[in-house]
């Protein structure tokens, strides 16, 4: 029987960060990662293999960091884990004993059981599986009409990429707006306009009833009876936690099927930790169970697990999921952190909103200058920043990260007003009209009313 001090199950972002953190902080311990894939995909980069990066081979998580630290990589599949005996068995017949276990088994694409025709040939999902995605990419080369179902981040990005590759893409979303579950209406509407302008056919406020065809996909029937011709259908209807191993070993799961884990990522079983898409998350602002699945969140949780394996590090707790998303349609980036306006109101927060639109360069005639809008959602009673949205150029991704830090640290509007920032004409907006600070000014005025 093989023995290791720390065994990490799962090789995506969670597994990579958990293993490197564990080995870096406990260098005397042996650490091994066991994963099914020879090569692991960068999760957030998957949509871009369909055009921008050209092939999945250009979207691989590197192993060099693990190898240099001395982390062992085992390509195999764990079939069973005995939590009491602290052992696991693999598909290739390997038995591994461990002292500490970190589960990072990720998530799987959701396919509704009620969806008739989902089993037809040329109906696809977007899993984090290189072999599957390579086959999908190869099959799509001979196809022209693609229907993508679900206009969340993956659906929007895949649609835009396939459109750039010359496909006729129709994106179907049951909500009133694409990205409507994540952004307030004015941001989602702008994203929709960009998609349409770029050539994606968009059908919102309508769902699909079934997928039609004789063995292969031929059409998609919408719930108003309309038929869309299709050579292929890509289902982008969210993901579900991959917790089959956890169930079998007797770990407690929450009502949504995630592995229960505390702020140190400890599970219901001693010496077993869970992080990433498979693990429970608590919303930072509401205290409710969150269904957020993000690589960035997974990495934060993985670091927390890796730091707290052998002693609790009180500075390394995971106090809740902020939820920080971003995407890009053409030259326009969209970002969101924490609560949006409609969610905050629905949760019962008394809020004020501050919005400002400026330019992300100074002067605005610099060639890559882009209009930049910042919207802040603020508690009326405390002035604490609950969330924010950004729309602008490529710098919007880092700007929304800054807003995420403000949310995570319970910063107030006054804190933002007193921000000391560095600016440079080719890199940032003017210090005299920095959109984040100007949005805080608008919110501050609203607080005084």
Automatic annotation (TrEMBL):
Question: Which GO molecular function entries does the Swiss-Prot or TrEMBL record give?
Answer: oxidoreductase activity
To which protein family does this belong?
Belongs to the class-III pyridine nucleotide-disulfide oxidoreductase family.
Q: Which Gene3D superfamilies match?
A: FAD/NAD(P)-binding domain
What superkingdom does the record give? Bacteria
User: How is this protein named in the record?
Assistant: FAD-dependent pyridine nucleotide-disulfide oxidoreductase
Which PANTHER family does the entry mention? Answer: NAD(P)H SULFUR OXIDOREDUCTASE (COA-DEPENDENT), PYRIDINE NUCLEOTIDE-DISULFIDE OXIDOREDUCTASE DOMAIN-CONTAINING
Which species is the source of this protein?
A: uncultured spirochete
Spell out the InterPro entries in the cross-references: FAD-bd_OxRdtase, FAD/NAD-bd_sf, FAD/NAD-binding_dom, FAD/NAD-linked_Rdtase_dimer_sf, Pyr_nucl-diS_OxRdtase_dimer
Q: Which UniProt keywords apply?
A: FAD, Flavoprotein, Oxidoreductase, Redox-active center
Which residues belong to any copy of the Pyridine nucleotide-disulphide oxidoreductase dimerisation domain?
Answer: 327-428
FAD/NAD(P)-binding domain segment(s)? 5-301
- One protein family per Pfam: Pyr_redox_dim
Cofactor(s) the protein requires to work: FAD
